[in-house]
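Readers outside the structure-tokenisation community will struggle with the description of the input data as it stands. What matters is that the chain and its backbone geometry are given together, residue for residue. For illustration, here is how one protein appears when written out as sequence plus structure tokens:

…
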Amino acid sequence: MGNVIWQGDKEAIANVQASTITGTWATDDTGTLTCAGKSVVFTVGATETIAAVVAGLVALWNASLEGALEEVTALDASPDITMTADTAGTPFVFTTSEDTAGDGEIGNPADSTANSSPADWDANENWDTGTAPAAADSVYLQNTDADVKWGLGQSAVTLAVLEARQSFTGDIGLPRTNVAGTHNFSEYRDAYLAIGATICRIGQGDGTGSRRLKINFGTVQTAATVYNSGTRIESDVPAVLLKGTHASNVLTVLRGDVGVAFFAGETAVIATLTVGYVRNVGNDATVYCGAGVTLTTVNKRGGKLTVQSAVTTLTHDAGEMDVLGSATVGTLDLFGGTVYYQSSGTVTTANVSDGGHLDFSRDTQARIVTNCNLYKGGKISDPHKTVTWTNGINLVDCSLADVTLDVGTDVTITPS
């Protein structure tokens, strides 16, 4: 229940793992080493010795052009195969298997030298208290560029507070594609810091912020506020990536670059999402919610918001918003700014007021607006006639002269 500050001071030591080959091997027996889903397979020839199997597997591993395998160098220490990380502080995982007529075996890998890293959340030495965070602690990342890349599986811990200030400029988590070596590969180690936090604060104070910050709150109820972020390190991926599936999660973004369940197949739940601003109404915040996000209430006060999932209630006051895919909206109260509706999903009720613009012009797929109320000063654009207005467009306390209405050419308007 104390305050714990990230320092990232532990010495980097290369991970070394060994696997022992035993038993009797025969012609056409096979031994396999696998990392990140990529394997090398040695088939025993006329020389049926343990030394031959070790030498064959080592040669195949070191000759491989698979990116994950290139991070590790194999050494012939017959009857052992010794694997050493090329970069000190970078852990790796490999597995073994065999198909033999006799009792030939490749033992499970075991650490000869454990990985040691200044980027390891688990390492006690990386924290100012000398102990890694425990349940109910308040964690602060500040005034350092020390990354957090390893030991990310902390889902058994629920923090009182997780705070990454704008003075923290290191990365949290890993990219989906590892581009550090000669050949890129899909990252097979944990990419998100998986940890519960009752309160999460990101980007407070001065500094340039983190360019990659990936957090998965799991099933723990979280109230998260993003005050700012760094500029994204990957051109097509937001700087802050969040996940969490509790039904009462709350997310507020005042400024910064944020993605929620950004990648295909990811899921998240947000009971209340608020997108605002600090100084620049239109551009302070950029938020993207993927197709796997469950959204109940969205309050859009500024910034740019993109959603690919259903929204129960949307209140839009300023800035721009894109509704994509097959997302539906229950009630849309559009008081200002522009909602670009590019979804095939239905809007049950749209209320468009002075300063608000509901724009269907950016694509031509069919969609339905069941109920629509257009108030003085409001604007609707459907130049391609893509919308079926089930109950018409109701002009509320105003006339056609008081609104901007573009529903294409050669249409019939029937007053009622």
In short: The chain has two domains: 16-113, 135-406. Residues 50 and 79 are 6 Å apart (CA to CA). Residues 50-63 form the longest helix (14 residues). The mean pLDDT is 97.
